[in-house]
Amino acid sequence: MDERSRVLLSACLGAIVGGLGGYLFLTEDGRRVRERIEPGIDDLLREVRHLRSAVEKARLAAQEGWTAIDELRRSAPPRTMVRPPAPY
Fold it and tell me: Which of the 8 DSSP states describes residue 78?
């Protein structure tokens, strides 16, 4: 995508977002729409917070697992190389 296309796309998206924002915040119909969707948005944000918490717990568990593996690897005695007998 060349520079001109990106500028045109950005301008169109900006106009759409601006128009939608104006509708939602500057008209009576927009206020009613916001009143209907706000509870759903609150629920969505609550679920995102729960998901973020679960991801953080999983990350910490994985980090602890890798730490334990590294500690086991360091504490294990060094391996000795045993060569198989030469074939006859």
Answer: P
User: Rounded to an integer, what distance in angstroms lies between the CA atom of residue 46 and that of residue 42?
Assistant: 6
Opening angle at CA 37, ends 36 and 43, nearest 5:
120
Q: What is the pLDDT of residues 2-52, one digit of tens each?
A: 999 999 999 999 999 999 999 999 999 999 999 999 999 999 999 999 999
pLDDT tens digits, 51-64: 999 999 999 999 99
Contact call for residues 24 and 33 (beta carbons, < 8 A): yes
Q: Evaluate whether 30 touches 23 at the Cβ level (below 8 Å).
A: yes
* Whole-number Å distance between alpha carbons of 3 and 70: 49
Its pTM stands at 0.51
- Euclidean distance between CA atoms 37 and 51, whole angstroms: 21
Provide the token pair at 77.
Answer: 């005695």
